[in-house]
Amino acid sequence: MRAQRICILGGTGFVGRHLIYRLAEHGYQMRVPTRRYERHRDLLVLPTLDLVQADIHDPKALIQLFAGCEAVVNLAGILNEKGHNGRGFYHAHVELAHKIAAACHKQNIKRLLHMSALNADARNGPSFYLRSKGQAEDFLHNTRDLHVTSFRPSVIFGPEDSFFNRFAKLLKIAPRLFPLACPRVRFAPVYVDDVARAFVHALQDRHSFGQHYDLCGPHVYTLKQLVEYTASVIGVRRRVIGLSDFLSRWQAHIFEYLPGKPFSWDNYQSLRVDSVCRGSFPFGLQPTALEAIVPGYLTHRTAHSRYPAYRSHA
Ligand SMILES: NC(=O)c1ccc[n+]([C@@H]2O[C@H](COP(=O)([O-])OP(=O)(O)OC[C@H]3O[C@@H](n4cnc5c(N)ncnc54)[C@H](OP(=O)(O)O)[C@@H]3O)[C@@H](O)[C@H]2O)c1
Predict the structure, then answer these.
(1) To test the ligand 1 pocket, which listed residue (8, 12, 15) has its Cβ within 8 A of the most ligand atoms?
(2) What are phi and psi of 153, to 5 degrees?
(3) Number of domains comprising the chain
(4) Dist. CA 279–CA 68, nearest whole Å
(5) Residue 165, in any domain of the structure
(6) Are residues 201 and 238 part of one domain?
(7) Ligand 1 within 6 A of 196 CB?
(8) Tens digit of pLDDT for each residue in 143-201?
(9) In this structure, are 42 and 99 located in the same domain?
(10) Residues 198, 237: one domain?
């Protein structure tokens, strides 16, 4: 089975941009809504992509967006909410899932690929983020007449990621010592293009209906190892000091109220569980090691690699 026209919610984001280039290669027609059309005009070079200014939280707009589509991909999500009580996560993940299901029903769309997160769990997730991701996933998989495939990645890396790039930036401005919360939590970072390839395979494979795929890279690292690795790649000498659990909590409480929430109480709660997979990567794909990719974008500061920073400053 092959869907021809796909609506991609969150298609302008970090993962979305990699996915749309993969889908374009496979000849799919794409409709990509955005709140900030001007900011994403560069995507207009893709002849099979229709960029649309729209509010995906408006149920009527969603129905219009899905008109004529055979499948929907939902990548929209947040890692931090504006408030502090979980309402923002519930709105961004659970309420949106309800609106997507209703709009799919209205437009007779039967196929949905949904981005969740590793450790998402409606009942036992330790954070608002992970519980709301779990609730959205459960709801969608229990929606009648909708063939849903969910993806549950560990942290995702690639050019413009907000993990290695953020640590690289912080390491550069830090004094000799770099205090790090939750240093022992483990991750299996997965390459963004491997994530995109998994989505494309799922679109073409009926066996993926109803499946929940955990997505991890080939190796497991502690957070401290990843930060030390980042420092070595960008060539700065910093001593990474792992904070105790008490100090990690303290840092989360303080940073929660700094502009931009560099680290939040909810992030701290999410980091109470390791973000690692049990099984292998789906569709027989071999996941890419981060050592093969990360130095390429952390060290090559070309004019093009600075565009995202210029855009966010604009
Ligand atoms: N990055 C990771 O390491 C990681 C790990 C696990 C799971 N995930 C999940 O993967 C998905 C994609 O992540 P990403 O890193 O690509 O995210 P991202 O770069 O922040 O992109 C999010 C996209 O969602 C769209 N969006 C629409 N309405 C939004 C709203 N009300 N609030 C925020 N965004 C809205 C944004 O589009 P406009 O701004 O153009 O409107 C943006 O393109 C998310 O669901 C995330 O939870 C990511």
Answers:
(1) 15
(2) -80, 155
(3) 2
(4) 36
(5) no
(6) no
(7) no
(8) 999 999 999 999 999 999 999 999 999 999 999 999 999 999 999 999 999 999 999 99
(9) yes
(10) no
